[in-house]
Design goal:
By secondary structure, the chain is an alpha+beta fold. The chain has eleven helices and twelve strands. Strands 1, 2, 3, 4, 5, 6, 7 and 12 form an eight-stranded mixed β-sheet that branches. Strands 9-10-8-11 form a four-stranded antiparallel β-sheet, sandwiched between helices. Strand 9 (about 325-330) and strand 10 (about 335-340) form a beta hairpin. The model has no long low-confidence stretch (mean pLDDT about 90). The protein binds adenosine-5'-triphosphate (ATP), (R)-mevalonate and magnesium ion (MG).
Amino acid sequence: MEVRARAPGKIILAGEHAVVHGSTAVAASIDLYTYVSLSFSSDSDNDGKLMLRLNDMALELSWQVGRIKEALPDMGITPSSPKPCTPETIKLLAALVEEHNNIPEAKITLAAGVIAFLWLYTSIQVVVTSELPLGSGLGSSAAFCVSVSAALLALSDSVNLDFGHHGWLSFGENDLELVNKWAFEGEKIIHGKPSGIDNTVSTYGNMIKFRSGELTRLKSNTPLKMLITNTKVGRNTKALVASVSERATRHPIAMPAVFKAVDSISNEIATIIQSPAHDDIAITQKEDKLEELMEMNQGLLQCMGVSHASIETVLRTTLKYKLASKLTGAGGGGCVLTLLPTLLSGTVVDKVIAELEGCGFQCLVAGIGGEGLQICFNSSS
Ligand SMILES: Nc1ncnc2c1ncn2[C@@H]1O[C@H](COP(=O)(O)OP(=O)(O)OP(=O)(O)O)[C@@H](O)[C@H]1O
Ligand SMILES: C[C@@](O)(CCO)CC(=O)[O-]
Ligand SMILES: [Mg+2]
């Protein structure tokens, strides 16, 4: 049987990093997905092979199932009760990755994703394809963990699904919760200390407010249009999250005040997003406030030390067109969000995009707040 799962990437409208330290953040799914396809073979004896094909990386990795069983002690874990991967198990998995597969030096950050996959693994043939740029702030790691967890859980007895359904199917509430918990365990391996916002918005989709593991679904009254600019400067979320934590340890009075200010900004953004706006004047007033709050959040992200020269170039360029921007995700390069007001002319949008692309950046206007995780039991979508 073949199972396919798809999980979306995300943008963070406000609150990244501060959310790791207990502040509120606001995030929305985007219509770019990571796809995972699992083919379940009955031949899962010790001679069988586990094969992982990472299409985006042009990498194929494989392990003898017997070797995996030999290397990993029986941990007595059942699919219905998500558990963290212990540091000892991470070491064993890392050794397995090193032992059997030569991941090229240039792709070495992938090892964390492969370890997360092995941790989530229970099956035989896996193919991963993503529309998301990896390591750019659009939640590729979370979409990866959510789609892998969902496909694996669908093949276990732990979720309730209609296997006869044709086309993309959504999970029920309890099953979404289970997928989200497992995906969080995968994210821990990739991010170190994730807040859980990325896997949660990828699982549930739409627009959410998130604080200390609790999500509130937001009902947006006006569609938001955002330009996403990928600076193409590579960075690593785990290292950036750790650097903010170190700064917080060095400045135990100043940094909590920064996180508190971000909390207020996120709450105000959530209120504005949900407030009614029936005419152009009201919509413009809402967008003006959102722009100001995005700029304030960007200033605080600079305080946390996660901006970058490439991000500053995007900010300066969009400001020339009176457009407000902020980094999204972990920063340090990666992607920048720019609010495109409803009444902004298409000509201005074209000009900003041309200027940004002239700097070597890549622009896209993504659909925001769509479906979260979905699954499919036939090969055609
Ligand atoms: N399609 C994929 N195939 C294989 N590994 C992936 C894939 N998507 C993500 N990963 C893993 O996730 C890592 C990137 O995660 P990272 O958290 O640094 O960036 P991000 O999730 O794109 O951005 P952010 O966390 O800021 O939203 C990759 O180096 C790899 O280990
Ligand atoms: C930087 C961060 O806040 C968001 C990354 O998309 C990390 C996290 O919340 O896990
Ligand atoms: Mg990530």
